[in-house]
Sequence to fold (265 residues):
Amino acid sequence: MGSFTLGKYLPLNSCIHKLDPRAKIIAMLIVLIAIFIPAGWLGYGLIALAVISLIFMAKLSLKFVIKAMKPMLFMMVFLLVINILVVKSGTIILSIGSFAIYTDAIIQTLYIVVRLVLMIMITTALTATTKPLDLTLGIEDLLKPFARFKVPSHEIAMLISIALRFIPDLIEETQRIMKAQTSRGVDLKEGKLKEKVMAILSLIVPLFVSAFQRAEDLANAMEARGYAPGATRTRYKVLKMERNDYILLVVSFVLCIALIILAIL
Fold:
């Protein structure tokens, strides 16, 4: 799983690691909203500058963040192919017989790719600098105002935290099963359609069995420790916002407002 970094926490000593998880979650949501504001390339440049600065402040390496984008390469290529086939506006940059590639297709693909890259970078920065338990506490506190509408804030936060925690484990398990099946002579890359389907089944079935086994072990462990959904719970760690947390929120709000102004102008 060395090539998969999303959901992986890095225990480093940085000012970003010490921030309140609620502030980091709210700042991430604000930046994600700002990414979809049509402020042009200047707006994306501002967001990229802010995100890269955040990554360096968190003492994360760019190589670690770039690894999180590898699973999205297929989607980016797929979007490029779809836009080339569908978008027929702008000037022609390449023509082969009746087939032509237009500038608007390339530009729209670049916009989508830049948005995806920025979203992956900010999400990776959040999960790499926030412990899963702190992330659960932060999400639970942010969902508390919805408790009056019978929203189970703790259960939702627990589900999100478990999902993020198990993503790297499932990726590792998938790679382990692929190596085991390859050593038994299963070819996952070549062969006829029927052979590929059987090879994929030989991967999916043990992966599901392993996932269900992990879920059962986790449920038994939580039950053995007296976990009861909906029960009143106390905390050993109480979250408290400090000056740096408010600075992060102000900076994210200012960035979002700046992009709105750029979009209007």
About this structure: The chain has a mean pLDDT of 82.
